[in-house]
Amino acid sequence: METFSKAQQKLIDVWDAHTASEFAHKNADEAIATMTDHPVLIHVPVNTGATGKEPLRKFYAEIFIPQMPEDAELELLTRTVGGNRIVDEFILHLTHTVRMDWFAPGIEPTGKRLAVPHVGIIAFEGGLIASEHIYWDQATVLKQMGLLDEDLPVLGSEQGARLLDPAAPANQLIDRL
User: Fold this and answer.
1) Number of domains present in the structure of the chain
2) What residue ranges are annotated as transmembrane (predicted)?
3) Is 1 among the domain residues?
4) Does the N-terminal or the C-terminal CB of the chain have fewer CB atoms within 10 Å?
5) Does residue 45 contact residue 136 with C-beta atoms inside 8 Å?
6) Where is 9: in which H helix or E strand?
7) CB contact at 8 A, 96 and 88
């Protein structure tokens, strides 16, 4: 386990409090309390999120938190912490039991279990979260939901397998040719 400086640990503590407010406590006001006066959230693959404290609080309260499946969990793989930034690599595990417009706009629940690798780049100002840029591969989401043609060169849940175990099979899409 990596050792972080006191200043880095403070950033981690704020980020951990923020994610707990979203996933465990399901409290938009608590999430916003960890952020600057003008925060930005961008879910890059689908351009969802908001800019500004009140629009982002509303996004969390009306879209993100209520549209999060009960079994959603984050599995942290790696974390890099700088002076004012955290970069987390993680897998979001969930069962698609609710409509999730922040994640797959307009797609009704499929009941499918998803495992989606993500990268989050979290910037801080004055010890509070200034921005979250969250990246994932939307094709793997749609593949795992059963919405993409099986012949397309896209991995489903196996996309994260080698992140968890470097000895897991590689080159499945090449090998099928």
Assistant:
1) 1
2) none
3) no
4) N
5) yes
6) helix 6-23
7) no
101: CATH: 3.10.450.50
* pTM passes above 0.90: yes
For residues 2 and 45, the model is more confident at 45
CA 81 vs CA 4, 20, 30, 101: distances in Å: 8, 19, 23, 30
Q: What is the mean pLDDT of the chain?
A: 96
Residue 22 belongs to some domain of the structure? yes
How many residues appear in the chain? Answer: 177
In a domain, 93, yes or no: yes
Question: 52 lies in a domain?
Answer: yes
Query: Mean pLDDT lowest for which of 33-47, 105-119, 145-159?
Result: 145-159
Enclosing domain of residue 62: 6-175
Contact 11, 127 (CB under 8 A): yes
